[in-house]
Amino acid sequence: MIEFKSKYRFLLVMLVVLMALNGLIARLVYLHLRLGGGADRNVRIIESRRLETDLMVARGKIFDCRGNTLALDIVKKEVCADPVLILSNNCLDKVAGSVGGMLNVNPASIGERLNQPGRRFVYLGGYGRSIEEEQAAKLESLKLPGLFTRDMMVRSYPRGNSMCHVLGYVNFDFERAGSAGIEQKWNKYLHGVHGLLISELDGRRHEIYDRRLFELKPRTGADVTLTLDHYVQYVVERALENAVHENQATAAWAIVERVKTGEILAMANYPAYDPNNFRSVSPEWMRNRCIGVVYEPGSTFKMAVVAAALNEKAITSSQVFDCENGTWFYNKRPLRDFHPYGLLSVADVIKKSSNIGAAKIAVILGEKRLYQYLREFGIGKPTGIDLPGEEAGLLHALPQWTSLSVTRIAIGHEVAVTALQMLQVLCAIANDGVLMRPYVVRRITDPDGQVLFEQQSKAIGRPIRTETAVEMKRLLARVTEEGGTGFKARVEGYTVGGKTGTAQKAIPGGYSDTLNMASFTGFIPVEDPQLAIIVVLDEPKGSVHTGGVVAGPVFREIAEQAVRYLDVLPSTTAVAEGKVKDASSEVGGQKQENGTRYVKNVGASFPRKRESGVIDALNVASSTE
Amino acid sequence: MANKNRRKQIQGYVIPVPVVSVLVVAMLLLLAYVWLDVRSKALGARIKSLEQQQSELQKKYDLELWKWEGIKSPKNIEKMLAQNNCSMIWPDEGNIVRLNEPTAAASIMTDYKSQIAQLSHTTKPLVHD
Prior knowledge:
The complex is a heterodimer. By secondary structure, chain A is of the alpha+beta class.
């Protein structure tokens, strides 16, 4: 009896438990197999639980050559809203008022944007408009229905408008593609790869980790290290800004390049813009004029012509030219000098920047050879710098030259160059005749530190021989001596070689009498050239607006700080320590005795070494000044 | 015939051993499953929280870097110097001491060699103390 009762009770309990379990299983099957309720309901359930999101990816950083960060991605907040929710809560005006004040946007326009009953999502303040974390916290503390903030990656340039024309900027679209400068040219390395996450959400809209179906981690973009130096760049930018204001110029631009490697240390334009806020800037301001604007170089071009003629041995530096007292008729058309000169040696043609002298040299050299040399120097073709938007310049093909072209090109007219091309000509001379490819990107490394790309210095041509280059350096050094057009570009303790340029601007129907481009192209120090600098001022106003007066002091301001900062040895120290050869000791590969003979012959002089060791030069014979 | 030992008789229904074994195994499996589930959920939550923490730290780091880069820019330094009435000048050439490495090394070697040479000529024994 007891056994039977016990068995009966056990079976009963088991039955109850089984029934309960069956009920639960049935419910689970019902829920999980989504029986009943129609397909729509099931889809809605799946969709409401599904999480599919792109994972934000940061673009690579951009560094200068000293590891300072010039561009990086930071997370900011964007303000979004659900108009349906806001309208149903009847708080349109309240939201528009609060957000408008915070975003500095007209509340009426926000109200208009929110008043869309059919939409569930709008960007307030506009697509890509971000706010700071603190502002976002303040906004969220208002607890306005339908108003929320989301994280967004923002490309940020901590140094504002510094290097803006080189760095470029990034668009606000989903891909965040670079649209100018380094950001554009090296976008494929910088942009990185978006991540993707497919998962499920719980009832509180939190992701359920163990329901992750797919996860592709975002891959951060590679970092780009430039050859630019932030301090040299700053010096250049400050000098340009001052020069534009002092001379009431329309614009100014400058480049600093390492002569022996082609590395660009600074590339600046004024006016500049803030790439953090590029949408409010006119496209004209965004143009990198150093490589994107061509101009007639004027007298700076003479150095290419004289170098070509010397290299061809068509002339010698001691050869004397009659500069016709300021006016020379060639093919019945007059060519004038800024100051009238009589007899000038080739050395003085450069020093005094005589148009007539340079034109006569070009005539002796001949059209064909002049054209070939200019092409060799890289005129009329892009330099190949690793930046977008480089202009090729303009050098007409030989058959298109008129009978006057040879004399006009010799003085930097009828030809158009970029500042970088002009600087390249000078660098080739300063680098013993070797033309180096200019570049701004030193290396690209992935986030793990692996080097993906590294750029080395590369020689791309040799337009003139070493002896010619040495001779040209000596001639260019005289330009900054007393009596030379580039006197104001002198830097204390250093010998500077260079050439001034003042070119009238071409206007419809001829050349303007009032508008011109003033420039100075120079290298420092002459004994062992380290840096080459070009400064161009567009439309300087004032009583004197020649390159020597306007651009020369800007060159000096840049050069004297750059050499100190980069620890370029002063001429005195370098010569004394025997690190470089004294430029005065040799003249075009000949010993100074020959040079002295030349002084006697034509009344010009060569640099000589003072007792103190400072390289100096005698002035030219007063009869030629 | 021996009497039945009532004390040794089992009262009630006896569940067969195989059933008990199956139930025990099932129970253990269930417990293991629950334990693993709880564990994986806890790990998932931890991973998620670490992910979030990493992302927050990265955000903070980038923001700090951004601020720092702005602070140490030459423009800002110059502004701060002006605000505090400080002016900086480049040192005079005469005040700069340049240590040329190969030259310095060579001079050290020369000194060292001359000391060695002196020592080799001395007649006194070297005493190390």
